[in-house]
């Protein structure tokens, strides 16, 4: 049986791969059926369909989106997935590198029940604008 460390490191790796795949349903599959995700205190996307739609919006803005896992930490059912997202903005063509993290509450079978994501929105927008 795999250790909790292996399980969660594999979860983080596979989640980043899913985000980089261009398959929104694959990303949503990491969430519980009634799971939710939000970034920077925005309205949460609740349920796998809404999560997949949010991911599709990301792909529309960054068709070549790549996500890397920079670090994973956990304590019980709480985890922090630290990431770097990179891609070219669909409208401006500008290369954008954004760093942030998601605070996860996990189910007993290691699906994400809720994800609170954070990143510097101002810096992200400056890069999109080419400033």
Provide the spatial order of strands within the biggest beta sheet.
2-1-6-5-4-3
Please provide the ordered H/E string of secondary-structure elements: HHEEHEEEEH
Structural class call reads alpha+beta
β content, as a range? 35-45%
Number of helices: 4
Portion of residues in helices? Answer: 25-40%
Q: From the alpha-carbon coordinates, what is the Rg to the nearest angstrom? A: 14 Å
On the 0-100 scale, what is the average pLDDT? Answer: 97
Shape: globular
Q: Tell me the number of strands.
A: 6
Describe the secondary structure blueprint for this structure.
Blueprint: H1 4-21, H2 24-28, E1 31-39, E2 45-46, H3 48-61, E3 66-75, E4 78-88, E5 95-106, E6 112-119, H4 121-129
Parallel strand pairs: 1-6
Antiparallel strand pairs: 1-2, 3-4, 4-5, 5-6
Summarize the structure.
The protein has 131 residues and is of the alpha+beta class. It has helices at residues 4-21, 24-28, 48-61, 121-129, and strands at 31-39, 45-46, 66-75, 78-88, 95-106, 112-119. 35% of the residues lie in helices and 40% in strands.
